[in-house]
Design a protein that fits this description.
This protein is mostly helical and about 140 residues long. About 55% of the residues lie in helices and about 10% in strands. It has 6 helices and 2 strands, in the order ααββαααα. The longest helix has 25 residues, at about 115-140.
């Protein structure tokens, strides 16, 4: 699936819920299915700066596609990074770099987060794209 198709699928899933309490519960469930980062990568250089909670992200490339693993010490944050990883993992770095993140606004995520969590969300997106840029450079 393309990033856009995955994002549309996420938007569809979130539209099934009537209120934000249900959406938060769904995000917590998504966090439980997150591809967990290996403990050896839970180091300071893999922590996303700008997040209120601790969020570790690790990326590796296989067959010219990026795969992300992550973890967080907060359940909502874990759900947020799970959504992003679902959209961007198993994709070509160039596609991640070029992908827009309008789906975040479509599901209303940013407006339902505290300002610090919203900043963390932006930092997570930025970090995933930075990994993609780094790996794309290796491919060129």
């Amino acid at each position: 699936m393309t990033i856009k198709e995955i994002q549309e699928e996420i938007v569809d899933e979130f539209s099934m819920f009537d209120d934000w309490m249900q959406r938060y519960e769904y995000m917590i469930e998504l966090g439980k299915s997150l591809p967990l980062i290996n403990d050896q990568y839970k180091v300071d250089e893999n922590i996303i700066k700008g997040c209120q909670s601790k969020v570790w992200v690790h990326a590796e490339m296989k067959d010219e596609k990026l795969f992300f693993t992550a973890d967080s010490d907060a359940i909502i944050t874990k759900g947020i990074i799970a959504i992003l990883i679902r959209a961007f993992s198993n994709q070509h770095p160039k596609d991640i770099i070029e992908a827009n993140t309008d789906f975040i606004d479509e599901i209303g995520l940013k407006e339902h987060l505290s300002p610090t969590r919203a900043n963390g969300l932006v930092s997570m997106i930025k970090q995933l794209k930075m990994y993609a840029i780094a790996y794309q450079t290796q491919l060129n």
